[in-house]
Design a protein that fits this description.
This protein is mainly alpha-helical. It folds into 3 domains: 162 residues, Serine Threonine Protein Phosphatase 5, Tetratricopeptide repeat; 46 residues, no CATH class; 114 residues, no CATH class. It is 60% helix and 3% strand. The protein is built from 15 helices and 3 strands. A 3-stranded mixed β-sheet has the order 1-2-3, with helices on both faces. Helix 3 packs antiparallel against helix 4 and helix 4 packs parallel to helix 6.
């Protein structure tokens, strides 16, 4: 059932918490979703507790995003000073996580601090975009957010606003969607104006849904070196699939580029572990040695929120885990 009431959101949060207990490897995305439902249920104190539990974990995948969400939640229920301190810490750390920047900038915008929001959007884009390169999917919402804030500020278009217009695909142009005066038309008695506003709102809602859902129609499977060694030691029948770890990484990047050239949108990467793969094989009553099980495993991980978008920003760490910028690693070809 789709959550519509506070009670529904609380029920969904409890379900996600139970799922997290069953799948500890997916704890981070599941707890983040649970916290979001608790916020919608009005239980912001409990959401803060969940964020705190996550921040106490030593192996978070997206620590700055968790901090940003925690700050946004704290500000909404009266802890402005603490929220500001967290936000300043994130800005000083200059993370390469576009989602963290989007939450921070959006929080400032929601509290009418447009100059600070604009600075956050601009700082993030300077960190994450390389002039002349294609805009990664995960970074587009930063461009759109900056465009929106600049319209609210009455600023003229600049190069990044033009780029935002270029990558925006909805039927209604960004200038219309972000026009501060358009909401006045809701008070009009003219049916034509109201129909035009409904069209604009539908386009805006569609864009928000696209950004929030971040679907991954194709998510390819990545094995870190240690996990691949363990996998092949246990199941040598898979050596034809993975001749070597460098070859595995090269094939993965090449496959993603081929899919991108073919027009496949919203590509993602999921990272496998041997225990998780074995548990998946058991749940499917299949042998881990079956090569056809590997893409099914990748799809299941993506459905459980484990996919990260490809390609990364050029200056972000490469998806392979090398800690080198993507442009100097697998993105350099």
């Amino acid at each position: 059932m789709r959550p519509d009431t506070p009670a529904d959101h609380t029920t969904e949060a409890e379900r996600l918490l139970r799922t997290a207990a069953r799948y500890p490897e997916d704890r981070e995305p599941l707890l983040l979703r649970a916290a979001a439902h608790l916020e919608l249920a009005g239980d912001r104190a409990r959401a803060t507790t969940l964020y705190g539990e996550l921040l106490g974990s030593p192996d978070l995948d997206h620590p700055h995003l968790v901090k940003a969400l925690n700050a946004a939640n704290l500000w909404e229920y009266g802890h402005e000073a603490e929220a500001r301190a967290i936000i300043e810490g994130i800005r000083a750390a200059a993370p390469l996580d576009p989602a963290a920047w989007e939450v921070v900038a959006g929080t400032l915008e929601n509290h009418d601090e447009l100059e600070a929001a604009h600075d956050c959007f601009s700082t993030a884009l300077a960190l994450l975009l390389t002039p002349g390169e294609e805009v990664p999917y995960a970074t587009r919402s930063l461009l759109f957010g900056r465009h929106r804030v600049r319209r609210l500020m009455g600023a003229d278009h600049d190069a990044w606003d033009t780029l935002a217009d270029t990558v925006h695909t909805a039927a209604v142009p960004l200038d219309e969607l972000h026009d501060p005066k358009r909401l006045w038309s809701l008070g009009s008695s003219d049916p034509g104006e109201l129909r035009a506003e409904i069209t604009r709102l539908r386009a805006e809602l569609g864009a928000y849904r696209t950004e929030l859902s971040r679907p991954f129609p194709v998510a390819l499977l990545h094995w870190p070196a240690a996990e691949l060694d363990e996998l092949l030691a246990a199941y040598p029948q898979l050596r034809d699939e993975y001749p070597s770890h460098p070859e595995h990484l090269a094939r993965l990047e090449a496959a993603l580029r081929d899919l991108h050239r073919a027009g496949t949108p919203n590509l993602g990467i999921v990272t496998g572990t041997v225990p998780s793969y074995e548990a998946f094989a058991a749940s499917e009553a299949a042998s881990p040695t079956a090569p056809e099980l590997l893409p099914q495993y990748a799809t299941t991980l993506a459905a459980r929120g484990r996919a990260v978008p490809w390609p990364p920003a050029r200056n972000a760490p490469c998806w392979c885990g090398s800690d080198r910028p993507y442009r100097e690693c697998h993105g350099g070809g």
